[in-house]
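Our preliminary data section would be incomplete without showing what the modeling component actually yields. Below, a chain of 623 amino acids is followed by its predicted structure, encoded as tokens that our downstream tools consume directly.
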Amino acid sequence: MSAPPKLPPPDPYRSPLTGWTRAHWEAVADRLLDALVPYATPGWARYCLPGRASCSGHASDGLEGYARSFLLASFRIAGADGQVDQRLTERYARGLTTGTDRRSGEAWPPIGDRAQPMVEAASIAVALHETRRWIWDRLDSPVQQRVVDWLSGIIGKRTHDNNWRLFQVVCEEFLASVGAGYRQSDIDGGLARIEDWYVGDGWYTDGDGRNFDYYNGWALHLYPLLWARIAGDRAEAARVAVYRARLRRFLLGYQHFFGADGAPVHQGRSLTYRFATVAPVWLGALADATPLPPGRTRRLASGVLRHFTEREVPDERGLLRLGWYEPFLPVTQEYSGPASPYWAAKGFLGLLLPPDHPVWTARELPLPIEESDQYVALPAPGWLLHGTRGDGIVRLLNHGSDHATPGLADDPHYVRFGYSSRTAPQTASHAPAARLDGHLALVAADGTASRRTVIHPLGVSSSRAASWYAARLPGDRTEYRVETTALPHQGLEVRVHRVEAPAGVTVREGGHAIAGTRPPTAETGDGWALVRRADGLVSAVVGLYGWCGGHVAHHTDANAFGPCSAVPYLTSAPHPGGRSIHVTLVALAGNPVQAAELCGVAAAEVMDGAVAVRFTDGTELYV
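Predicted structure:
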């Protein structure tokens, strides 16, 4: 067992909010890189980490360990102007020599159509560019040629039609930069394809459909601007200006995705990349494309890295494991191998900024959520962010992202009504409640529940978000419309559902799942349910109209935030058939709150299909 990273003392003057400085980032980077040494093959071409293999196999997983950690090493080496332990530089130079030698026994798998080595080739290309003076320029000519030959395997290959198009772009641009062969149509075609996915306000969908998640920042913004760094004068100035303007617009909203404790909102796939979520924040400063003042950039990024470090990420051996805090495989995908989490390397992009850059020297500034409650509309992805200063929690009201592609429909990381910086959806397949939290369903007599699949947005503003989905039940070819309007108010959320349903079904709605090391306590009553974690975090649902039963579902090993989880949920009386209205008060609070307070805080009145919700503070909401 290895010792935890030795961190420098906090700097309360320069960093009054996190205490962290550039030295802390370097210390964590060094710890991550040093911890990998025992898992390297003799020629340093693969890093074979413990854990479940990916669908691509062990050879590809070993390449992944090399490539993603090389990306981290490149930021560390270039950011220090080469003034690092020379064994670090030598390890990765040796890995290039061995990995491209077919006789070494450690040769990297070739780059085939839609194959995982495409992804890793992009990390290697970026890393080679950033460390050109210290690694590429010092390689023997035969080794350089072997590297070129291996990378050239990507030329003309078919990629997945999503962010993978950009892996080909950066690889071939690196080949062009060293005078090797490349196909300009691959570069132009990849950059042109992302234009089809741009939906405005700095947001791309990751491929066709409504696939909005962190890939928008750590891939679809990141690689075009890294391409521009590699291309230099070859990059069209007008195109680069567009990318910079889009990133600037994106970061205006993106800064609100992080809680006051540094936790990112837990939504989307590949969440095991964790602090890669701050890559676009650093990129904005690196590309002079950020609306954030330097002190806020560092406060946001350092807050995220400190958040995970304080929760033993990396673990006691210095490794990043598949999971969120503790290892948890249901938060991963079949392409996730033992070294996949090292795409977290992207979160260290800020090390490329020199130590005297304002992001490292300016005094930290607070996040918006640390100054006031936040209501941020993101119409492009169909999201409304609601952050509360009192408890530092960010809630994402989801009325636009569904990732409803073949084989991925009803993915809990996309289709829930709500996500947050303090909770995760139930994701384990063994838990029947995996489709209970954050979802309104029609439940047949046999217990089968409808799924929220394709989400049809109806609009987002700073005060409400709305959408509908078509509910289907087994054996019934009818599609029943479920329309929902969500209205946030001071840490609470009112959901007004207009439901079409056949006679006899039950309508059911779940709140946020909360999880920890011990089972949350539960309280239920007539039309309400509440669960409470030991630290005071509360999730509750209160039926304001159309509900009669309050319940709690407990599960083990179903949630990324801990082994013991619980979901409060409501049920209706048997549906008479036709149309009905259901109004729910959803609460997620980090401050102490009692059931009696929540049950009395609001009342709903329904008349001729119109809904009025009145809070005890005098606020009135109408739908």
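The chain has 13 helices and 22 strands. The chain has a mean pLDDT of 95. Preliminary results of this kind motivate Aim 1 of the renewal.
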